[in-house]
Amino acid sequence: MATATERLFGKSIKRREDPRFITGRGQYVDDVKLPGMTYAAFVRSPHAHARIRAIDVSQAKAHPGVVAVFTGKDMTGVNSLPCGWDLRKEKNIPGVVQDLAMVPHMPLTSDVARHVGDPVAVVIAHSQSAAVDGAEKVRVDWEPLPAVTATEKATASGAAQLHSGAPGNVAFKWALGDAAATDAAFKNAPVTVKKRIVNQRLVANAMEPRACVARFEEATGELTLWVTSQNPHVHRLLMCAFVLGIPEHKVRVIAPDVGGGFGSKVFLYNEEVVCSWATRQIKRPVRWTASRREAYVTDAHGRDHVTEAELALSRDGKMLGLRVRTTANLGAYLSTFAPAIPTFLYGTLLNGVYTIGAISCEVTGVFTNTTAVDAYRGAGRPEACYVLERIVEAGARALNMDPAELRRKNFIPKFADSYQTLMAVTYDSGDYGAAFDKLLTVFDYKKFRADQAAARQQGRLLGVGFSTYIEACSIAPSKLVGALGAGAGLYESGKVRVHPTGMVTVYTGSHSHGQGHETTFAQLVADELQIPIEQVEIVHGDTGQIPFGMGTYGSRSGSVGGTAIQMSLNKIKEKGKQIAAHLLEASPKDMEYANGQFQVKGVPGKAVPFGAVALTAYVPHKYPEGLEPGLEETSFYDPSNFCFPFGAHACVVEVDRDTGKVNVLRYVAVDDVGNVINPMIVDGMVHGGIAQGVGQALWEGAVYDGESGQLVTGSMMDYAMPKADMLPLYETDRTVTPTPVNAMGVKGAGETGTIAATPTVVNAVVDALAPLGIDHIEAMPLTAERVWKTIQASKAGK
Amino acid sequence: MKLPVKITINGQATSHEVEPRLLLVHYIRETVGLTGTHVGCDTTQCGACTILMNGKAVKSCNFFAVQCDGADITTIEGLAKDGELHPIQQGFWEKHGLQCGFCTPGMIMTAYQIIERYPKPSEEVIRHQLEGNLCRCTGYHNIVKAIEWAAEAMAKK
Question: Does this model's pTM top 0.90?
Answer without folding.
Answer: yes
